[in-house]
Model the fold of this input.
Amino acid sequence: MANFSFDVVSEYDKAEINNVFDQVQREIVTRYDFKGTPAAIEWLNEDRSGFKIIGSSDWQVDAILDIVRKKLAARSQSQKILDTTKDLVESNLKVTQEVPFVRGLDQEKAKKITKLLRDEVPKVKTQIQGEEVRVTSNSKDNLQTAINLLKSQDFDFPLSFTNYR
Done:
């Protein structure tokens, strides 16, 4: 019998995130309630690992975050990639918030996935490989069951499935 497998990873599509960034910038420029204010969105750093949201008040930062969430949803990207736990910084009549992207599975998250699969789908084998979890089985049906189980769970991090074999 052939062995089938796939990898569970926590990634995001960089091209789609670029599109979200461009769309949010365009909407900020055209919105009437943002005219004459410092409202903007910037990349967090050169490697584009997050957004820096700038506004005149905390409600404006929240409004821009809401626009980002809507654009992510429209592009079928998980909103769980946004780490909104950083505090707002107020200075010079501006409020900024850094929103880095969540990426990669650490050991704790990987163990949570493997335990769930071991308990619910005992016919699949899991193996933690760095920042991904390899799931193998003799049956494609078991792999489909595992994927559907993982999709139905509400993890606090985004999941995607790659490397189907």
